[in-house]
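User: Hey, my collaborator sent me this sequence without any context and asked if I could get a structure. I don't really work with proteins. Can you help?
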Amino acid sequence: MLLKKLIAGLGLAALVASASAGGMESLEAFVKNARSGRAEFTQTVTSPPKEGRAARDKVSTGTFEFQRPGRFRFDYKKPFVQNIVADGETLWLFDADLNQVTQRQQAQALGSTPAALIASAPDLKALQADFALESAPERDGLQWVKATPKSKDGQLQSVQIGFQGDSLAALEILDSFGQKSVLKFGKVEVNPSLPASTFRFKPPPGADVVRQ
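Assistant: No problem. I've predicted the 3D structure and written it out in structure-token form, which is a compact way to encode the shape of the chain:
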């Protein structure tokens, strides 16, 4: 999502190529070998500054779990409680403050989304059907891959995925409105045993359910 400057000099170019290859290798290994996962996350959302005002960050924290293919959940805990659960057929979004559940068909909702990149795709070939993938130079001690949706109909402009070795470490998401979301993952567990109930969602009693 961040434009890369051309680097002159054969020595530097070779260094960048080496780091870039590491990013693609890490992505391929992650998709192939991480069949399930669990982590904590911190998400920072930065909206484009309005005229006469500085950009403001919104920070939230929570937990993330996934199981390939197509099952995942994000549980936002602070500052507001929200749940996003994909059970393989349906994508559920629950806003506790509004006591509202949004229900969508998962196949139509995910496609070219960050969730497809890290949790839904069964292999690299499936990812390449929806995204143009390219390596990016190493930075912040991580190997990076930039993913650009091939479909121009969505609101996602690009995603950069950061790896520490073969472990998922960060996501940088840029949408078509110029809003940037950065997720940093910690306490990452690869291939934990997750019960089937992890990815089941039942609307709370009295919640307003909206089907889209």
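In plain terms: The mean pLDDT is 84. You can pass these tokens on to your collaborator as they are.
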